[in-house]
């Protein structure tokens, strides 16, 4: 379950992402670890990787489980000097990055993205992303956690309707975690640069390559509120646009979505 830093660094083609990397065999959560070590991090783009998490955090206070050594579990520390950038994109970017990497290595894999940031293969969830804002002053500081089921599917907590899968179970690619992470960070940095350059349209169109087709029927549930309608794209800030039964365009910023 060791971390092979040579494989990681040989395959990393970035300027900042992953240039400061920490490996922890077992920790509670990489997001928590990063929050506790913020003062000692040197670079925006610093990464912590864990072999196993004892208290992995998922969205909506769910638990994110893993089988030791068989998932990619990491968090990236990102600082935005410009606090006017829409932070909603921060979770979109790693989802697109992973989707691109998976498709590159298995062109036949049916990779898709489910808003806001689930990565699916053949409709099953292979990865989840959890962003936490740790400072929203003039420099916005965030921790973006990414969990990918690589070799096996862990027991899932109550996850709504999405069935889980793993890279090994649903593609022909058999990457080491180090290679997968290096590939993802390489794509992620390119996309992050687009965000810094305010190229939102480019990001939306990259997402659209894996997102649902316009007109797909969707249902968004949050607490007791259900909105149904057809997919009408992503808005300026990455929010989901749904056209409801009355033809009204609804902007969705949170919640879980399922496709019909
Ligand atoms: C989701 O619910 O879909 C998001 C799951 C995010 C899990 C990752 S694993 C690495 C990082 N550390 C955590 O505690 N959570 C994220």
Brief account:
The protein is an alpha+beta fold. It has helices at residues 5-11, 30-36, 89-105, 167-170, 177-196, 200-208; strands spanning 21-27, 47-53, 71-80, 111-114, 118-121, 124-136, 140-149, 217-222, 225-234, 240-244, 249-252, 256-259.
Task: Characterise the protein shown here.
This protein is α+β, with helices and mostly antiparallel strands and 260 residues long. Helix content is 25%, strand content 32%. It has helices spanning 5-11, 30-36, 89-105, 167-170, 177-196, 200-208; strands at 21-27, 47-53, 71-80, 111-114, 118-121, 124-136, 140-149, 217-222, 225-234, 240-244, 249-252, 256-259. It has a seven-stranded mixed β-sheet with strand order 1-2-3-7-6-5-4, sandwiched between helices. The chain is globular and about 55 Å long. It starts with a helix and ends with a strand. Bound molecules: biotin (BTN).
Considering the chains and any ligands shown, give keywords for the structure.
single chain; 260 residues; alpha+beta; 7-stranded mixed β-sheet; 6 helices; 12 strands; 25% helix; 32% strand; binds biotin
Classify the beta-strand content into a percent band: 25-35%
Strand tally:
12
Average of the residue pLDDT scores: 93
Q: Which structural category do the helix and sheet elements fall into?
A: alpha+beta
Tell me which ligands are bound.
biotin
User: How helical, in percent, are the residues?
Assistant: 10-25%
Tally of alpha and pi helices: 6
CA radius of gyration: 17 Å
Sheet with the most strands, sense and barrel status: 7 strands, mixed
Q: Report the principal-axis shape.
A: globular
Spatially, the strands of the biggest sheet line up as 1-2-3-7-6-5-4
User: Can you write the helix and strand succession as a string?
Assistant: HEHEEHEEEEHHHEEEEE
Unreliable stretches (pLDDT < 50, length at least 5) are none
Q: Calculate the terminal CA-CA distance, rounded to whole Å.
A: 39 Å
